[in-house]
Design a protein that fits this description.
The complex is a heterodimer of chains A (439) and B (469). Chain A is α/β, with parallel strands linked by helices and 439 residues long. Chain A has helices at 6-13, 15-28, 44-53, 66-79, 92-97, 100-112, 126-131, 160-175, 195-207, 221-226, 241-249, 262-276, 280-300, 317-325, 344-352, 363-373, 382-390, 398-402, 409-424, 427-438, and strands at 61-63, 86-88, 119-124, 141-142, 145-151, 186-190, 212-216, 232-235, 253-255, 307-310, 332-334, 356-358, 377-380, 395-397. In chain A, the strands form 3 sheets. Chain A has a 5-stranded parallel beta sheet with strand order 12-11-10-13-14, sandwiched between helices. The chains are: A alpha/beta (439), B alpha/beta (469).
């Protein structure tokens, strides 16, 4: 009886391990150039879709081919919103007859028949961008719905976090109110964060005298409007370069970084206080309090061990900062985004503390780091993690396991350090499972 | 006339090629693709449909703006080939929608510089995934068969079967193998899953070819010049399949004995449920299906044609218009929906009480365990068991419980009903699942009266009913 299952076949083949050994040998030999083949990011366009499909009253109109739409709808329904995505068919026939713009216009009219739709983002992807969409040929408004063109072709943008930047910028450019109506002591927080972190930020900022806080990306279109009148933009994640530029160009003060770890949290609170000209004594007091609380948590949870952080969300390095403060050895960390000005603070700090950093990383770079540093835990991408688990080392997907938990202030530090500690201790289970499937 | 697509549920021939060639461990695919086409097909979606952490034998050229606007994709394709040579794999370069946009065809370059590497044009701006699977399988035979004459050991059967992205295929494949073995046949080869590319030469050395899906595999099967059977759904087609296979293999007696034994063992549950009260529900139950062609057709044939359930619709997901599916599901939700995640979304938009049974892609869903077939005798048994358990659960949902409510605290002052309100109540009740209509009606009546009281009304009007969800 033939009992071969697909899994058996894969396990027996171990083709990927062999491939990697060859790559590893190749780079050891004569070639100084490293063999890097698999860039690590989701489809960049997904980042933009994640931002815009979640907005209440928004109905996305995608301009793309069948295969692309299938894949992006699939991941959007899984990771962004339980909402339909609509698209005019864009295949050979439409491309050769040149009806794309007409087809998009018809689709917009069809969508706008639903009077509850307030926003139609036209998401232009690789094939449509290559064919060429002229923005002036699209209406600005159809029925009750504002129409906004969001261009996020994967060949132009190299990672999904950076597409979030483009999507938010497109919405701000269109909807943000004029700066004349600026509201004093108001802040826009830029960056997707865990809800509890957003609440904590609100509480801390209220204590130092901030009067209103908006967080972007938001489910409310009104937040994009109100963001135009804030006094200060706090950019939590380093890939929001266009959004930062948008605010700077309007004369809005910008504060970078985020409240992770002892010194960064202190400085972050002080910077916001300074930017808004808040009461120095109170700001200092709150900053000191938060610093003390985080320090107490970190001191109580000191740990040893080697951890590699290699996600692709673009906001990995604050976690590295926290782990280093807690005594963890983090010899290598990598991410999908480019090295940016906003990330310069972390870059300098982590490099100084001895962490090797990679931007726009490939799977092969991360694997080499795993072989070189033999970590006790890897916080990575799904591809990297499966390799690491084959070695019997604990590994978790940064996107699922870290992004779904608080990391800010003392509470976040506590949750994160407990998590890392418990994962490192799971090593036996990972080794045992590996041995079982090898046998 | 603009064709407006809602929630694309059938992917392109490029994905078909990745899902087919990726299943062959001696192949390494180079896709002339932007990073997104690599990530979506080879990392993200394949993990949610097939529980594969990522496709190992798959590398993108990583198309950049420069390649698209000026330099072309030849040099990055060559660079990628150079990095992958020496891995001992058969390299195959394929196009994507985007590389086709810039007219990148590497056939000649490969023929001149890398004669052992072939180019597969994915035709992604023309063909869908089922057309693509069919064509790439035939292409494998045309390009990689050893051209030796067939030598056929008696009783051998090969299956042209699942690729990645074929819903529930491990269980169905398991069942088809079981049926073949029951007749006394020997499963020679399953292609592409469970095989290498080099094994394609083995297919022609088979007595009979079984094609698992009507939507793809036939072109390859026809090239083999052997008798072809299609995998069956339901009791009667499965019985016929076993007879036909027995005849083709010269094992008629064994086939008849197997059918007899199956009726006493595997299928006994259906006969027991048929004689019990459970089967009497079937004529009162309606269902809809939207899935792959083979699945939609098979579900209709078995559930409607053999069990007597009412089929609201059974649509091939590849040709169905989701705008229309959504309208139909929302205006008249069926009791059972065999569908895709998009159907689940449409039903949830109106809060429908429909039982949703994932029966196709798209949608993240693991179906790797071998005990959930839809095809064959085991499939019939599994489906009947699932449906009966769903009906039991429906009943459970409507039985009274000690759930905390404020009903007891309400006054018992009688409330009048207008004739219009009464007929609306009757109308709504009709749409409730048959077996729960009595309790449904009672619940709705209570809700309406409570709502009227809260509004300070002494009469339930049509307006009150219309406000109830």
């Amino acid at each position: 009886m033939n009992t071969t299952s697909p899994t058996d076949a894969l396990n027996r083949e171990r083709d990927f391990s062999n491939l990697f050994n060859i790559l590893s040998e190749q780079s050891k030999d004569d070639k100084t150039e490293e063999v890097n083949l698999h860039p690590q990011t989701m489809c960049p366009a997904f980042g933009g879709l994640r931002v815009i499909t979640r907005i209440d009253g928004a109905q996305v109109c995608m301009a793309t081919d069948k295969g692309c739409m299938y894949g992006l709808t699939f991941v959007t329904h899984f990771y962004a919103a339980k909402k339909s995505i609509v698209s005019p068919e864009l295949m050979s026939q439409q491309l050769s007859s040149g009806t794309m713009i007409t087809d998009i216009r018809h689709t917009l009219e069809e969508i706008a028949k639903d009077k509850s739709i307030r926003l139609i983002p036209v998401v232009s992807l690789c094939v449509a961008e290559t064919a060429g969409i002229a923005e002036e040929l699209l209406p600005k408004k159809v029925g009750n719905a504002e129409v906004v063109l969001v261009r996020i072709p994967a060949y132009l943008i190299k990672s999904h976090p950076e597409a979030k930047d483009i999507a938010i910028e497109a919405l701000l450019k269109r909807f943000a109110q004029t700066p004349t109506s600026e509201r004093k002591k108001s802040v826009a927080i830029i960056g997707e964060i865990f809800p509890l972190d957003a609440m904590m930020i609100g509480q801390v900022l209220e204590r130092i005298g901030v009067e209103s806080v908006i967080t972007l990306p938001s489910q409310q279109l009104d937040d994009y409007k109100d963001a135009g009148s804030v006094e200060c933009a706090v950019v939590l994640h380093p890939f929001y370069e266009r959004v930062e530029e948008f605010f700077r160009a309007r004369g809005v003060k910008v504060v970078g970084s985020n409240p992770v770890g002892v010194n960064a949290t202190y400085k972050w609170i002080k910077d916001i206080g300074d930017a808004l000209g808040l009461d120095e004594t109170i700001t200092e007091q709150v900053a000191q309090e938060e610093k003390t609380k985080i320090k107490a948590v970190i001191d109580a949870k000191k740990m040893k061990g080697t951890v590699i952080v290699a996600g692709y969300e673009g906001n990995e390095f604050p976690l590295v900062r926290l782990l280093l403060e807690a005594g963890v050895n983090v010899p290598y960390a990598s991410t999908s985004i480019a090295h940016t000005e906003l990330g310069e603070g972390d870059h300098k700090l982590l490099t100084m503390l001895g962490t090797e950093l990679r931007y726009r990383k490939t799977l092969e770079e991360d694997r080499r780091a795993v072989l070189k540093y033999k970590p006790d835990l890897v916080v990575g991408t799904t591809s990297l993690d499966s390799y690491v688990k084959e070695l019997g080392i604990p590994a978790v997907y940064y996107t699922n396991i870290i992004s779904s938990r608080p990391i800010y202030f003392a509470q976040g530090a506590s949750v994160m350090l407990d998590l890392i500690q418990s994962l490192v201790q799971k090593r036996d289970a990972f080794e045992k499972m590996k041995r079982f499937f090898e046998g | 006339m603009t064709k407006i697509i809602r929630d694309e549920s059938t992917t392109s021939a490029y994905w078909a090629a990745v899902n087919t060639l990726g299943a062959l461990p001696d192949v390494h695919i180079i896709a002339d693709a932007p990073i997104g086409c690599y990530n979506l097909a080879g990392v993200a979606v394949i993990d949610y449909t097939d529980a594969i952490p990522y496709l190992r034998n798959f590398t993108p050229t990583d198309l950049t703006e420069q390649a698209i606007s000026s330099s072309g994709t030849t040099s990055i394709t060559k660079e990628t080939i150079e990095k992958l040579r020496g891995t001992g794999k058969t390299l195959i370069v394929m196009s994507t929608a985007e590389s086709e946009m810039v007219g990148a065809d590497h056939t000649q370059m490969l023929a001149a510089q890398y004669p052992d590497i072939k180019f597969f044009p994915s035709n992604s701006l023309i063909e869908d995934e089922w057309q693509g699977r069919d064509r790439v399988l035939a292409w494998c035979f045309d390009n990689y068969d050893d051209r030796k004459p067939p030598s056929i050991p008696a009783g051998t059967v090969s299956i042209i079967g699942p690729t990645y992205g074929c819903f529930n295929s491990p269980s169905d494949l398991h069942e088809i193998k079981r049926l073949i073995q029951g007749v006394g046949g020997k499963v020679k080869r399953v292609f592409p899953m469970e095989s290498k590319l080099a094994d394609i030469s083995d297919l022609k050395h088979s007595d009979v070819i079984v094609v698992m899906y009507e939507e793809f595999g036939t072109s390859l099967a026809k090239k083999l010049g052997r008798p072809i059977l299609y995998a069956p759904f339901g009791l009667y087609d499965t019985e016929q399949f076993i007879r036909d296979l027995g005849k083709l293999l010269g094992k008629t007696e064994q086939a008849e004995a197997f059918i007899k034994e199956e009726k006493q063992t595997t299928l006994k549950l259906i006969w027991d449920l048929w004689r019990g009260p459970q089967s009497e529900w079937f004529p009162t139950v309606n269902f809809a299906a939207c899935a792959s062609h083979t699945y939609a057709k098979g579900l209709k044939k078995f559930l409607e044609g053999e069990l007597g359930m009412t089929c609201v619709f059974a649509e091939n997901s590849a040709t169905a218009d989701n705008n229309e599916i959504r309208r139909r599901l929302q205006s008249n939700p069926p009791q059972l929906m065999f569908g895709r995640i998009v159907d689940k979304i449409y039903l949830s938009e109106v809060g429908a009480k429909t039982y949703f049974i994932q029966s196709g892609y798209p949608g993240p869903f693991v179906r790797r365990a071998l005990g959930t077939p839809y095809m064959g005798f085991s499939g019939a048994v599994y489906l009947v068991q699932e449906i009966v358990n769903i009906l039991y659960d429906t009943l459970f949902q409507f039985l009274p419980s000690h759930k905390a409510t404020n009903e007891l605290a309400e006054s018992d002052a009688p409330i009048a009903w207008t004739a219009e309100a009464k007929s609306l109540l009757a109308e709504r009740t009709k749409h409730a699942p048959f077996i729960s209509q009595i309790s449904f009606s009672r619940d709705l009546k209570k809700k309406a009266e409570r709502h009227a009281r809260n509004q300070g009304l002494s009469t339930v009007t049509a307006e009150v009913i219309s406000k109830l969800s």
